[in-house]
Amino acid sequence: MGEIFREIVNKPHEAVGSARKNIQKIHTGNKGAAAAKWTGVGMAGLLQFLLWATKYLTLDNHVTRALENRYTNKGNKYPNLSAHLTYYAMMAAAILVAPEVYEAITADKEPQATEVEATTPMGQPGTYGAYLDRMRSITPLLIADLIAKEGVHVNANGMHTPYRDSKGIPTIGFGSTLLKDGSRVTMDTPPISTEEAYELSRWHLEQGETYFVLYCYDVAFGNVDISTTSQAFGMSSIVYNSYSKLIENPGDRNHRQRFAELRQIYNEYGLATPDSLVKEVFRKYPVRDARSFGEKWLGGAPMHETANKLGNFMRDGRGLIWRRWLEAGLLTGDITPEMMLDCPANGMYEFFCVMGQKKSAFFTGTGENKRVNRDTYAKFKEWLRNPVNARGQRLSEKQYPRVIALLPAQVRGMCEGGHCKLGDLDFIAQFAQSQAQQRAQKDAYVIGYHSQYNLAVAAYRAGDYQGALAMYRKMVEQYPNNALIHNDLAATYNQLGQYDNAIEHARIILNTIGDKSQYGAAQYNAGFAYEQKGNLQKALANYRLALANGNRRVQRDITRVTNMMQLNQNGRGKKSKREAFARGVQKLGNYAHSADFDVSMFLRGGKDI
Q: Second label for 270, Cα 20 to 30 Å away, from 102, 342, 449, 582?
């Protein structure tokens, strides 16, 4: 029976093969006939192949013959038909489970461990990350404010050099006293570029607590509505210079305990800090001793009334007089961000001297009746057109350049293009794509040892993980609070398969150093290690936190691990039509293997299989 069947199914492609040979034997006398002949040969050959392939895939191949022989040996009544039904069931099962097989193969594909900071915009809604994304575009304005108040110190090559601030503390760039690797600025700190100076200040502002404190009040109080760039600029300046002591009595027990708990949450979650936890902490420790300014601001009073209360906080030196006056002007809109960008570096002190260093030029009245002297705002605006010192001499642009001219070129261009405003996501996207700033983000971590770090990175990229490991370990011993190097070390351990060590260094970043800008990379490295160890639950948890902390590249890892966990869950007994069919096919395979399968069961409507 089997031989007769094979003879029948082979006839179509054999017949076409004979026709192809006959066409090939035809003699032609011209080029046109020859072209027609060989076209016919080609078409016949293609048809012959398609008929053979169809026959092989569906009717006669090694699998069907092997099944037929097995059924024949076991005395099956219909060995040929049984073999083909079994084969078709196997093919159907293969088609149905192919997507899951593909997912499983994809799931096993090893992702690349990251070695660099991977923070990008767009935080998760309902988290601090989303709030920070809204504030990032005003960071240049706060840095401009620092330049206007303190100026800059650069050498003949345009590099920023260390200097001592008004309190005698070694400082570099735009008011930075601490480096990214956790060490203090000293008078021996090497000079840094403008991009590195900007990056240090940006890092302090965005991974520190300036914006986080504002976020906490904004989430907890419905009356707080920072809706304009000037207001966001003014409130950020207030918190940067005074933390929350203008809003609440810093000695109040509720205030201390609340922010201790909020700080702990921030250190744990980073940008993933949820609004709900902040509200819960404020319910637990409500504001009960607000200062005069805080009472107005938290209560939603008109901004002019709120700004007047800043006059009550000028006891720590003459510099606070014009600082508070500037902040008040930003809150009311009398001072615009553009005015601060146009201000000469260190120009605010010169204007203060022009006004005779008199408190009454900036605030009038006494006690609780102090009022902002708004007439001086018009004088300041006029002074910006022709900045002079107290002796009436014009400030030279060489000695007192405009603040905007001191910002990195990329940032300066975005501010001049109108992107330095509250909630401008174009600013964030352009900044993230700036190669100069990407370089500065890393370079600012390794000030004074760029070459040593670059050698380790080169070894890692060349696949010399042992060499990179030795260099990273040496650096982390010297700079134990450098989160970037801990992340690079974790990535290197992942490449070497030392997953527990990778997790340990990720934990150091999250639990000890607390550098929020490196959380996204640290959580990715931890997730990668847990995935390789087979702990998919912890891998997924870390990947999701990495995403919430700005590492958007991790989305593909979340998808992969989620699919793997779904496959595992299905494998533990989740019922579906596909699985039921697959189990049925498995039964067929068992019958085929044991040759107990008999097509007569179908023909006579026998027991269910």
A: 449
